[in-house]
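Hello Y.,

Per our agreement to keep a running log of every chain we model this quarter, I'm adding this entry. I've kept the format consistent with earlier entries: sequence first, then predicted structure.
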Amino acid sequence: MSSRRLGQSGRALSRRDFYNDPTAPRANNIVPAASAVVLNADDQILLIRRTDNGLWSIPGGTMEPGEDITSCCIREVEEETGFRINVFRLIGIYSDPSHVVAYDDGEVRQSFSICFSGSIVSGKLRTSSESSEVAFVPLADLDTYDIHSSIRLRIEDYLTNKTEPFIR
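Predicted structure for the entry above:
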């Protein structure tokens, strides 16, 4: 099941991320989510271009009733990229109230995302209704991709190789 947000008309909702922005709307909801930093054998990072805002991102999405957070992460990565992963390390918990996501239906979520690192177990690269492009990107090329600062932070945290998770 896709976590792509649909409005009452059944059309996909667009989103806008705010991070440390004094003009950001006030949050009116919190929804648990998971994401993953996944590298291939060539140390290229798996990225998606989101269909709801056009930005590049690590794969991830919201938790559904009846699943645990690692299952959410595995499901979301597979839905958005075509790859099934093994989750092997917690990178961090990201719940900074200065990061909010506004949807065009009036919902404004405070971010609450748990980010993992994972490795590909199976699958084949493909796009989805949530990802217009899926690519393995050399780490040296990340600066040339339009990635929201909140996602860049998660990637940077992963790259530190710190054994303890970040709590932000």
